[in-house]
Amino acid sequence: MSARNREALxxxxxxxxxxxxxxxxxxxxxAFLSNASLTYGAVFLGLCLVGHLVIRFTxxxxxxxxxxxxxxxxxFGLVELYRIDESFARLQAQWFVVGLGxxxxxxxxxxxxxxxxxxxxxxxxxxxxxxxxxxxxxxxEATNGAYLSIRLGPFSFQAAEFAKIGxxxxxxxxxxxxRQVLIHGGRRFLGMSLPPLRHFxxxxxxxxxxxxxxxxxxxxxxxxxxxxxxxxxxxxxxGKKRYPLLGLGAFALGAYVVGGRVGHVQDRVAAWQNPLDPxxxxxxxxxxxxxxxxSSYQLAQSLFAQADGGLFGRxxxxxxxxxxxxxxxxxxxxxLPASQTDMIYALITNETGLIGAAAILxxxxxxxxxxxxIASLAxxxxxxxxxxxxxxxxxxxxxxxxxxxxxxxxxxxxxxxFISYGGSSVMANFxxxxxxxxxxxDARRPT
Amino acid sequence: MIAPPLADLVEPxxxxxxxxxVGVLYLFLAWVARSSVVDLSRGAVGAVAPGVVAGEGLSxxxxxxxxxxVERAIGHHPGDEYDIGQGAVIGRGAQVEIQIEDPYASSRxxxxxRQAGVVIVEDLGSTNGTFLNEEPLVGAQPLQLGDRIRIGxxxxxxxxx
Lengths: 447, 161
What we know:
The complex is a heterodimer.
Chain A: H1 3-30, H2 36-58, H3 66-84, H4 86-109, H5 115-118, H6 120-132, E1 140-143, E2 146-152, E3 155-158, H7 159-183, E4 188-189, E5 192-193, H8 197-216, H9 220-238, H10 242-259, H11 263-273, H12 278-281, H13 283-287, H14 297-309, E6 322-324, E7 332-334, H15 344-377, H16 381-405, H17 423-444
Antiparallel strand pairs in A: 1-2, 2-3, 4-5, 6-7
Helix pairs in contact in A: 1-2, 1-3, 2-3, 2-4, 3-4, 3-15, 4-17, 6-7, 7-9, 7-16, 7-17, 8-9, 8-10, 9-10, 9-16, 14-15, 15-16, 15-17, 16-17
Chain B: H1 10-45, E1 67-72, E2 81-83, E3 88-91, E4 98-99, E5 110-115, E6 118-123, E7 131-132, E8 135-136, E9 140-142, E10 148-151, E11 154-159
């Protein structure tokens, strides 16, 4: 079976999942099965087939499993968003159409992605600007204390989502250029041969940028994502373990020093260490019957929701999202705040249990495996580094949010790619996917 | 639609739906995973991309004997390997270790030297230049597993695994 036919076949399960998912939710809500779920499934399949056709015409040899794996994530996202609020699902579906448009655009226009390497410094400057803009007055906007989004009139978008792609492109281009020097460094220091200062400088600058990000946008997750991708690339480019080890040490040290001084990061760490602390949880607020909650409420509730899900989950549409806090029943509070974005993983765990959550993580793992596979097949250093970087930043984003929700690391607000509600996230990740497909097409095209 | 008398079927049906969804999902993932594994084992036998052994990535270890494998060269068999552990000169002349009959090659075209366990390639002032991974070679460059050296229409891959 050819790669593209395999891809088309692999899209069927996700259409089936959408149909069954919506059926389960309709059944729970109205106690009847409507054929609307079939319509949703058909529309979803139609959208996927459009994406498939774009790939068939622009990249016939590219990896056949990436797109179907993403479709499975997207269908889970749509079903869960519909279950939280119909309007979320409707908007998200629109974002998917826009995202697919961008995917097609990237696939058609960027036939030769090596062009990107030539503009690496422009792209780097643009990405840094995107990262700093949310801190600027008027257009900047703080979400829960972190500066991540830019507001332009009625639109607000997450700058970090787009910046991550730009930064990876820059790093891939930069390391392609300098990796030889980094491997065969000059001076020896403490038993290690270090590259000349001229080349070590930029590496320090990247570390400094990550620290500045931490201070400026106050977001540990985004800083971890960018710096982690950088270390992964550095390791792949040089094959020397000491670079990522040194980098991790430097990052830990910097995060400790900076994090202890930036109030917002401090709060997040405190909430992470002790989510069940009554003061942090905001038990007194709930006792007085007021809406609102403490700083660790979200994390604590996420842990409860996941534990409540058990092995098999409560079933689609059965998680409790709102509760009445006062005796009169007039004030409601969210049991799982931000369940459509940051907390969607906790909601999925609650409704489908450990087996469902494990399936989601497996899907991400397989995407990452395909990504690294593309990198190992790629024929030139820039392509290898680009595919590695894009895959790493994707994997780290999943780690940062799932790790945050499951209390492995302090919780920070990044989206769960292709599942969380949010236009920027959907669009940026579709561009990332298109780039990976392009590298894959280049690598697998018979010569 | 389910008629009202069947309302007590709602619960079992939704449970069945949930397990069906998870079941389909796992079957799909198993299929993709199986294909990935098949892919990997196939890649390990024959190098899929020219010059790069699948799974090796960019970071060549350099533990084995350094060799040059012929990719294409007039008068050579593709796949032949030259041992370059003692260094070598590539060129059209008679006094070289690796002789190529490429019209674009100079008599002493490019030199390979082994220094501190690393093989370094250098252009010996040739007329048409040497290309390392399709980039013009400037100065002396250390070689890594999978690097491609091209002189005119002749191409070698550096191996040290």
